Amino acid sequence: GQNIDQPTEMTATEGAIVQINCTYQTSGFNGLFWYQQHAGEAPTFLSYNVLDGLEEKGRFSSFLSRSKGYSYLLLKELQMKDSASYLCAVMDSNYQLIWGAGTKLIIKP
Amino acid sequence: IAGITQAPTSQILAAGRRMTLRCTQDMRHNAMYWYRQDLGLGLRLIHYSNTAGTTGKGEVPDGYSVSRANTDDFPLTLASAVPSQTSVYFCASSDTSGGVTDTQYFGPGTRLTVL
Lengths: 109, 115
Description:
- The structure holds two protein chains of two kinds.
- Chain A is mainly beta.
- Chain A has strands spanning 3-5, 9-13, 18-25, 32-37, 44-49, 53-57, 60-65, 70-75, 84-91, 97-99, 103-108.
- By secondary structure, chain B is mostly beta strands.
- Classes of the chains: A mainly beta, B mainly beta.
- The interface between A and B is medium-sized, with 22 and 18 residues.
């Protein structure tokens, strides 16, 4: 079966750096997405990786290793507004997104 | 530009009742999707539509039906609601007309409670 694994919850301090990992096993691979979801709101797009390596977007970076079935989302200079759930999703061979359960990130002052 | 709108925002429904969740997008995206999100689980695809006039089944289609009469609208119908359909429902859309993987954009969601 298809599976996306990510930690259920993480805690970090304002101003620090946090890395959220995602491992996947899917039938085919057509890219990996990271979304941010604040409580009670819709998921919003953060990043997309289809080739190995690091993609940087301001304070957020995303890394992909296809051979290891592994990605991480790196958040720098954490702010209180970064408190949210972070969803990892892989597009499979049918171009359907398979979603992880999400990582709830708690930022403490 | 509104993006994607969903209605209602929330609803409490008696078991056995019929309910239609509405979804409208103004981005002219060809593809649309319905997901449900339950605590501790990832988003699960219910139904999708790659273009107006076509629909397909996702991971959890039982008890749900959809139609895609035009590009903008993609309603989801629960013919006879059951308590296990209590969930938050998200509609999403994407532009896949270029034949490449593209980002899905989500509506604000409908919180449905079936009693």
